[in-house]
Structure formats: C-alpha cells, structure tokens
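Pilot study result, target chain (609 residues):
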Amino acid sequence: DTPLKAHRLGRGAITLLRLRERGFPRADVLELLRDGFRAKTRIDVDASDRATRRARIAGGTSEELRVMRNRSAEVEQYIALVAELEELTQSISADFLDRLPGLFRIETDGDLKAAEKLDEIAALFERTKVWNRGFDVSAVIDAIEQESLPRAASKDATVWAGDILRFRGRSVTHLFTVRMQDDVFPQRRNDDPLLPDSDRRALGLREIGDGADEERLLLELLYDNAHEVHFSCAAGDGFGKVLRPSRFVRGAGAAHAIVPAQTAPRMTARTRPLQLLAKAGTRSTFDGYLDPQPLREKIEAALARVSPTQLEDFGECPQKYLFKHVLGVEDLDQPERELQIHHREKGTLDHRILERFYRSGDRSFAALEQIVDEEFDRFAEEVPPFNKTVREIERRATKRILRDFVSSDLEDLAEQGLEPKHFEYRFGNRRRGNEEASAPAFEVSAGDATIRIDGMIDRIDAGGGKLRIVDYKSGKALRHAGLSEKIDRGVRLQLALYALAVSQFFDTAPENVSGTIKPLVVADFKPAKFSFALAEKKDGVAETLRLFVKAIVRGTFPAFPNERDDEFNSCKYCPVTHSCRTKHDADERYAVQQSEDPRTLLASLEGGS
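Predicted structure:
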C-alpha cells in the first residue's frame, strides 16, 4: 500500500495545514504548486524558484516580503501567491477540510482515491463539531499520516527488493545490485563477541562464517541462467562518493546483458589498462583533458574579460574554473535552510560598513555601531529575515567583531604610517549602481596572449610614497595564511594582480607597493603571514599567468581536490564539490596530489610535452 502522506494530495494537504505555523517557507509554497495546488495567481513555478533563490527569500508573509526593494516580476508573483495562501489558511476548521480535496488537480484514478480518503477524514472531523473543543490541526495531520491507499491490481512488471540470501527461486529480467562494492561484497561477518567461533567449534554449534561461499554460489547460478538478465549497479551513494563494483560483478559491466560464466572472456594483460583509460579519459588517472575546439567560443569569452578571483579559482583547481567560469555552473542555494546571512551577502555587508566607517573620518565605536545598525536595516529591505532572532544575533556579533577589527586595524595603520585613501576601487567593467569604474581594465601579457582583468579592490592605503592594497576576508581567513608562499604556488593570485594593477594605475614602482589580507576575526597570526611585497612576486606572477592561460587555451582542466584550510581548500565554494569523482576516489586523489598544487602539475606536463 501507498501511505496517503506519500501521495501528492496527502502531502499537499499536510503542507497547507502546517504552512502558517511554519511561517510560509519558500520551498513549501512552491512545492504546493508542484503537487497540483490550483492557485488563482498565475505564476511560472520554475522562474519564481530561480528568482526567489537569487533574492535570498527563505520565507515569510506577504507583508514581510513587500518591504523588499527592486523586486522582479517573478518575486511579485510569488508574493501574490503567498498572500493568496495567507487568506486561504487564515481559518483552519472542519469547513476548510471539506474544501481541501477540491484545491488540488485530480488527474488519475489514484488522485481520485486520495481525494476520497481526504473526504472521509473531513467527514470524521465534521462529526466532532458537537464536542465544542476547538479544532486540532495536529490531530488532522495524524489522521492523514495513518491512512494509506490500496495498491491497484496491475499486470505491469513488479519490483522485488530483498536480501541476496533470499534470492533463491526468483527469476528476473533486470538485476540492480545494492552495496555490491569492494570491501562489502562478499560480506565480512565478525565473530559473535559473546560466543566467538572458537567456542562455537568446541561446543559443536554453527559458526558465523563469512558468507562468501553462499554468495558466490548464488552469483554463479545467476550467471548460468543469465541469457536475458540485464545487470546494473550503483555508481555512487547519492552524496558524491564513488562506489566501485565488487570483483564478483565487475566483469559484467553496467546495464549490459550478463554472459554465462563459462563463456565470459578472461582478463588479459591489456584489459586493466584499457579499463583505467576508459574510466580516466585521455591522459592521466583523473579527468580534465578536453578537446578545446567544441569549447573554443566559451574559452575565448572567458579569457576576454577575467577577474583575479577567476584566475585564483584556476590556481586552486582548474576543473573548478572550467565548471564555474567556462560552463557557467552555479551553486543551487536553498535560502530556507540557511539560518544565517549567506556568506556572499555577509561579506558585501561587512565591506559596506567598513567603507562608510573609514570614509566618514569619525573613528569612534559609537559611529561604527550606528553604521552597523543602518546597514543591517537597509539589508533587511533587500533580504527580509526569515528568523528575526538569528538576524539580531548576527547584528550584535557584527558589532563585536568589527569593534575588535577596527581597533587592531587603526593600531596597524599608525605603526605603518599609512592612511586609507581609496575604498571599493573598481577598474575595468566593474561598477556599483550608476557609479563608473575608477580606471580601465588592467591589461597583462601572458605569453602569446594579452588578457584584460577587471576587479574591485576593497581598500588602498597610502603614506610616505608607498601604497598598500588591503583585502578584507570574513572569519579568520586560514586559507590565506602563508600568503607570500601561496602566491608563488599560484593558489593565491587575487591580491598580487590587484597590486600589479595599482602599480600601473598610480605610476608607482613595484618596490613601493605591497599587499595584505585583513581577516575580520582578529586571530593570533602575525601580520607577515598575510602580507607580501610586489617587487618579490612580480616575475613569478607573470610566469604563472602564462602557464595558466596556455593550459586554458589547450583545454587542460585537471581536478585538484584539497579540503585543508591550512593549505588552500580548493573544494570550498565549488559548485560541484559533491559530484567531483577525483575528490572521493583514493587512487585518483593520490595520483593528483603527488604535485602539491595545480601550478606544479601543469608545469610538469608542459615540460613533459
């Protein structure tokens, strides 16, 4: 039988009953439409889904959402839908239950049976009106969860799921194996800790055994009668981890007819290398070597205008650059699951607060806290808080963190004899609102090519004929510790490229230009771990750019997994981190990480070719 709550009408009914008390979550509102809710508001569900994700809408009433500025047409439609649902769920009563089945589209016989079940539940609660005890929504939900829909008689093919040791006597046309991977199949059974096999043997009792013989026998029986049986197995666990088939089923291949065991081809000396070659792609034990011709237009468009952040992505993991900046893969954000402000919006908010603080000239903590309050109020008009309590906690935490940061930063400025002069300095195509960029794109030679770089520098300090580029980073910025060394390795290029651009824009010698990362959470690290001098890095950065651009043009995008914050954590902020095969495959991971970073790997490949 199918539980009523698993049917779309039952699921939609439960969602409607809980909608108001849960604060109209975005996912629930849109899921109602996908479950067949007949809304009066005309709305494109997929377009509204994309628009509300971009607008960071987690949920809320129509009144709370209408404070948003610059709303798109899709967001307006979503707000109108929420208003309709507010009116519909304003009073949950027995009369509401009577109307519940009619709120959804009835398309199949199964839908009709589900609607009849909801009618029966409504009739049951209609009879309870004489008790005068009020209407209990939780009791209605419980009643729906207890109901089920009988399975209709059908001649369609059935699916049997069970233990392999209960497989005896069954005939199938397609066999899908679950957990038949290395180290799991054949089963490894451990001794009973209370009565181990040695004691069982002495007492003449049945031993536990490992189950391998019986499982091998069943597979051989299947092979002997498998002329019309197709075989397939799971390639992953659903969370990004790659699963390798057990050696007992590996030779059959996936989704192919199994040949009888006596006619199966034997493994030759060449078979294994060919298998690895088919698995890996073209030139190594990991993917990423592509024919650049089909991607020529996208690659040229990506190189026509690049940002330092994009080049840094390539330095961390070339395949991350391919997915994000060539193929345009984006993170699928789920605002309703995020209690805190999204890290991108939080970074922008912190930058705006610090820009206003340093521009104002008033270096008091009272001025800082006032700016924090004003910017949080402004942000609430852009992204209304789904959880106001958490938003207020973040407001107070921001005041505390930025007070400590500003105190430390002002002390550092005094020691260095510097003063903040430029804020949010934009060059190239970068703009904010109607403000034009302060300088044209920065052009840099990378071997045979010239690339144009756009960017925005958080702050430029000046004093004594020297310039210092400052980049704010949320948190403790552990990924950026050891900045000078990481620039040489090509995994941290953003600040070095900013320094090159500033040296040209302000006609300042590289000896007088430096850069530093400023973590907003003050830690015990020495400032030297987050700083560098441009004169020492200029030539190395030019060679790194030449190497990277040449690799991009020839279609070389190897995956380079790294999850250590004290290194460079290339998997952080990657849109395909859960689907990266190399990240989860031990052999491929080992082969890749023989090189400490992508720059070393690409340099060795260039030398080898």
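One observation from the pilot: The first helix runs from residue 8 to 19. A full batch analysis is planned for the follow-on phase.
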